């Protein structure tokens, strides 16, 4: 959790310095440190205590001192110094998606914008029109950013909540000996954003479970603690609620508190028609309790198969369960490789060989190195010459590997007119080509659709990366006719990506299900720029499961031999 706090702090420092017009190199250093810490899965506190802080690639002496200072005092004196010169209200405005520090600095100077109310008034009364860069489209984007910010208040990204809950639950199980401790709610359904984290627990000694929970090292504040319930705030400001239940009712409580609301209402209607009452304590036929200890028994009592938590959104899963036609959802253990990672050759933090070894350690058979192409200059994209040299390096590394192969790939930009950023005579040398939009997000729907479809026509493209272009909570999807895009993907035999990076999760679950219905394969890539991002495959698999996807629907459940054959045949 200290990782998250430091990530946010360094990003905020960069924003304040940029607002003030400070040295760009200093700003870039803080943003880089923020990104590095955000990518770590190991606790920064543990790394520091082992004396290994400066071994983290990209963390220099000055940044290491600030991290150590924060871990000791809870503050960074440099941050306290620079924030005194900028009001808290101005700092808060920087959280608006689409409102960069430079734009805010200009509005502050030209129009005296100092807080949210002044900004919203100026946006609505037209006072900002005519200022540099402030056209109608920009104003609409800022208004939409304010809406996104308001919607996200009190919510958190799945990629933030999931590792926190997993760590807390694993610790509770280890320290109490109880195996029946599980998170519930929208997190158990693996929704892309959730509210608070809810945990259910049972065992012979509930008092011990609650005691251990409220005394976990991550806990900063205990909000409430009783005989069966406790609420705490952990580092990072996340609220976690623990509810202890009787063993005989654990299954019923887990079903009830997992939801969704719509799913549970539908179940209660079916139960009522059968003369059964279901609630958090069990399923009852008159006064007799007929189920409750195991969650599966609740569903069986209603004459249906158990439904995986990710499906419980009342989207046809209950009818499928009644008919014995639920999909056999993909498992993460079936993933044979990661189809989208980056290396130091573009904007990654590690070498090709280091990324390959990390993938091999996860039990994969292959990993696709898909560094950016030349037009994405900010990411140090590869031109034709550098890509050919990278191909040679991958061939050299592959000669040393046993039972594993690095796929030679690229994340090639789709240019504004649909042409690819690299010529076909270069792309034909690659095993796996990922095509992506990284610019021109504001094109109208017809142009954007035509642009992507043209790219899909290329015989050398295998996968369309992050197809909608959204960033959760910060950027809406670009305008595109998704039905036409999917039909083109089917026509040309292309796969669509579930980009598992926690800020994307793109395709979303609904479009995954549509792809399945149409007959389009989906490939999951973590878009890892760091070794510690490869765990996000769990998030990608969760999206696939919410989209009703089975083993054969997902490209990277194929073996190395199978995927190489598929890549060759798709040309």
SSE layout:
Elements: H1 2-20, H2 24-39, H3 44-49, H4 61-73, H5 77-83, H6 88-93, H7 101-111, H8 116-124, H9 136-152, E1 156-157, H10 158-176, E2 181-183, H11 185-188, E3 193-194, E4 197-201, H12 206-214, E5 219-225, E6 229-234, E7 238-244, H13 250-258, H14 261-273, E8 277-279, E9 282-285, E10 288-291, H15 295-301, H16 317-322, E11 337-341, H17 352-361, E12 366-369, H18 384-400, E13 405-413, H19 424-427, E14 432-436, H20 445-456, E15 463-464, H21 482-492, E16 495-499, H22 509-518, E17 522-525, H23 537-546, H24 560-569
Parallel strand pairs: 4-7, 11-12, 12-13, 13-14, 14-15, 15-16, 16-17
Antiparallel strand pairs: 1-3, 2-4, 5-6, 6-7, 8-9, 9-10
Helix pairs in contact: 1-2, 1-7, 10-12, 13-15, 20-21, 22-23
Describe what is shown at a glance.
The protein is α/β, with parallel strands linked by helices and 571 residues long. Helix content is 45%, strand content 13%. Helix 1 (2-20) packs antiparallel against helix 2, helix 1 (2-20) crosses helix 7 (101-111) and helix 20 (445-456) packs parallel to helix 21.
Report on this structure.
- There is one protein chain.
- The mean pLDDT is 92.
- The chain has 4 domains: 2-152, DNA polymerase beta, N-terminal domain-like (DNA polymerase, domain 1, Orthogonal Bundle); 156-244, 2-Layer Sandwich (Beta Polymerase, domain 2), CATH 3.30.460.10; 249-322, Beta Polymerase, domain 3, CATH 3.30.210; 332-569, Alpha-Beta Barrel (TIM Barrel).
- It is of the alpha/beta class and 571 residues long.
- It starts with a helix and ends with a helix.
- Helix 10 packs across helix 12 (206-214) and helix 13 (250-258) packs across helix 15 (295-301).
